[in-house]
Specification:
The chain is α+β, with helices and mostly antiparallel strands. It is about 25% helix and about 25% strand.
């Protein structure tokens, strides 16, 4: 079973507005800025946060993006030329969290953060905008290889949160399905039939991956 730290907490909160990104000025809200004070959590994400392409970003199952601050040293070591840039917020996350990473989560974990309830429902799949953000084409492939995807939350209960809020485990409906295993399946498509059956019947998992699992079974 994945072990969640008893001292997990919210290091920083980040939101972004749609703006031109990269030399081709692609509209994107990938660039996030740290915000202070109490932030409202709505059903579709943090107040003040935006998405440029709503077909692939945002929505109830990509409402809030969490990332482990503990992953940044490895990124800095792998890409020393970007070490100064690889700081909280650099991956486009809304919540930069201490005491948690992909190995300490299970699919469907419910976290209490501030007065909001958030549920871990899928990993991030990196796209070309990660490359544009840091002017390095290798970054999406590196994220697939290292599995440092971060995780998307759906919002089960709206509320407020702020940097410094504790991240507490409220429920763990699937203790036998670690999140890092889901990341591997999403990246490489190497699920067993038993795993596909479990995914297809797991309401806590994002709907696209339930549908994908069922289609593979069929």
């Amino acid at each position: 079973m994945a072990a969640m730290s008893a001292t997990a907490s919210l290091l920083s909160v980040h939101t972004g507005a749609v703006a031109p990104l990269g030399p081709e000025a692609v509209p994107s809200a990938f660039v996030k800025h740290s915000v202070s004070g109490t932030i409202a959590v709505t059903a579709l994400g943090l107040a003040g946060d935006s998405q440029a392409d709503r077909q692939v970003h945002g929505g109830p199952e990509k409402a809030v993006y969490g990332y482990a601050v503990s992953r940044y040293p490895a990124w800095q070591k792998q890409f020393p030329e970007l070490a100064a840039a690889f700081q909280p917020g650099a991956m486009g996350e809304n919540l930069c969290i201490t005491g948690l990473d992909e190995t300490a989560l299970c699919v469907g974990d419910v976290h209490g953060i501030g007065t909001a309830l958030l549920q871990v429902c899928q990993p991030r799949q990196p796209c070309f905008k990660l490359s544009l953000r840091h002017n390095n084409r290798e970054l999406p492939r590196a994220m697939v290889r290292n599995g440092f995807s971060g995780w998307y939350y759906r919002v089960l209960a709206t509320g407020t949160l702020a940097a410094g809020s504790a991240v507490t485990l409220q429920d763990r409906p699937h203790p036998d399905f670690r999140f890092d295993r889901l990341v591997e399946i999403v990246n490489y498509g190497n699920a067993s039939k038993d795993e596909l059956r479990q995914m297809a019947q797991m309401p806590e998992l994002a709907s696209q991956w339930r549908t994908r699992a069922q289609s593979l079974l069929d």
